[in-house]
Amino acid sequence: METNKYLNDISEIKNMMNRSSRFISLSGLSGVLAGVYSLIGAWLAYETIYSDAAPLGTYENLMVRESSMMRLFAIAIIVIVLSIITGITLSIKKAKKVNEKVWDASSKRLLINFAIPLVTGGFFVLFLIEKEIYGFVAPVTLIFYGLACVNASKYTLGDIRYLGITLIILGLVSSYFIGYGLLFWALGFGVCHIFYGFKLYFKHEKN
After folding, report:
1. How many CB atoms lie within 10 A of CB 207?
2. In this predicted model, what pLDDT tens digit does every residue of 123-161 receive, in sequence order?
3. Distance (Å, rounded) from C-alpha 152 to C-alpha 70?
4. What is the DSSP string of 96-145?
5. What are residue 98's phi and psi, to 5 degrees?
């Protein structure tokens, strides 16, 4: 009996230390909705980029007008803003439910470690666009976003690490199949977010 009591005490201490060092209020449903937004955005981008005369996957013959490029930027910004707002809103709701703070030392560490690879990748993508190297935009965004997830996973739920690794692999594969970036975008930012979002929800939130 004494041994069991000590083991329970140790387990409780470990849980308290884990909760103090990790941001555990990340909502799985926000990942699901971010994936849905991404799939809608990918479809809108497809409608913007490709015409009936431009078959899927032919960057060589792809001509994007300036007006279309502006629309693509607008779609990307809307998807990002909706995903951020949804993530913050649902995380606040989850934090209140479990009596946790949303903005504390762990969430600050999470944000910083997530932002460093993401901002670096963002500048890299801008350089690629400026040089009109559009074929590598999708692989680079997937790889750097995956690196951001892996880097931030030390300060949040461990499943985020596996999401990041999956996205890195998709990005590397996408860099080989140049011309199918939009499909890999939809698979990575859409399907993978939905899958891992549901996994987080059923693992950490449903009960």
Report:
1. 5
2. 998 898 888 787 888 899 999 999 999 998 888 777 888
3. 31
4. HHTT--SSSHHHHHHHHHHHHHHHHHHHHHHHHHHTT-GGGHHHHHHHHH
5. -105, 10
Tens of pLDDT along 24-57?
Answer: 567 788 889 999 999 999 998 888 877 544 444 4
Which residue, chain included where needed, has tokens 């939905």?
194
Q: What is the DSSP letter of 17?
A: H
**Distance (Å, whole) CA 68 – CA 42:** 14
CA separation for the pair 90, 143 (Å, rounded): 26
Give the dihedral of Cα atoms 7, 9, 15, 21; nearest 10 deg: -120
Q: Which of 74, 87, 43 is nearest to 183 (CA)?
A: 43
pTM to 2 decimals?
0.79
For residue 164, which of 113, 206, 202, 128 has the smallest C-alpha distance?
A: 113
Q: Two tokens at 120?
A: 């670096």
How many residues does this entry show for the chain? 207
Query: Please, what is the Cα angle at 121 between 183 and 180, to 5 degrees?
Result: 15
